[in-house]
Amino acid sequence: AIERTLSIVKPDAVAKNVIGKIYQRFEDAGLKIVAARMVHLSAREAGQFYAVHKDRPFFSELVEFMTSGPVMIQVLEGEGAIAKNRELMGATDPKKAAPGTIRADFADSIDANAVHGSDAPETAAVEVAFFFPGMNIYSR
Ligand code: CMP
To answer: Most exposed residue of 4, 5, 60, 105, measured as fewest CB within 10 angstroms of its CB?
Structure first.
């Protein structure tokens, strides 16, 4: 099925100037960028976005990292977009990410791991709506 997923190029990858290289991978895999914006998240926004992780030990570091610089946020659309994006990203921990994946090639640590991608249809819907009202998504 044609799906939409939320993707974030995190502060480490924005600082490394590899937004374009990461976008190229999405496009080469048949994923279409149907919405995008650059944002320097506030702690409140990052905390709300990652609310599911608020009781995890890494939560405060996660929020600190995600607010350390601007991020590039996009909606990717295509056949099986959620799983396809997760394949392109590789494992959360770049040390475990398969060769050739975005995290293997651009990430430095489990916090500075270059990209975020929604993990399931339910979270994708919530995450897309968090950053993009429907009128700002340009599907076909
Ligand atoms: P992301 O897909 O953006 O979702 C939550 C983020 O928390 C994750 O990527 C990692 O960057 C970060 N994180 C830090 N430590 C951990 C951990 N032990 N397990 C999962 N995620 C972690």
So the answer is: 60
